[in-house]
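DM from R.C. (forwarded with permission)

"hey, sorry to bug you on a friday — could you get me a structure for this? deadline for the figure draft is monday and I only need the backbone to look sensible"
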Amino acid sequence: MADQPLKNDEYWLEKLTDEEFRICRQHGTEPAFSGQYYNSKVVGQYLCRCCETSLFKSEAKYDSGSGWPSFYQPAIDGVIAERRDIAHGMVRTEVLCENCGSHLGHVFPDGPAPTGLRYCINSASLTLLADGDDIQ
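My reply, with the result:
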């Protein structure tokens, strides 16, 4: 992860809702088809909910049918960290914000061209910044 000062659970519990904390900091998952961005068509960029790093652009978002926002590539190289996840009897690749370590979701090798990847991301891990809007 990037050189960012460590923030403890107390900090994150003040900044995030209970659901955001469970997903972003405790590696949880929201139910399929329940997140606010799974079906969004808004043009803009998707930021890390915790640190506001730009992670994905709407141009790379597509409907994977999975019930979570899906992207075929990050906004730029180096913003996503990967680690092996063997929880729940599965072998997957977890994706995290490289800047703050926030859990985002998982990446799978069944996405569309040009990358063949499907970044399956929890809406609770993201903030959508629509084109023309400012970060608040």
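R.C.: lifesaver. The beta strands are 44-48, 54-57, 61-62, 70-71, 80-85, 92-97, 103-108, 118-121, 126-130.
me: no worries. The CA atoms of residues 61 and 71 lie 4 Å apart.
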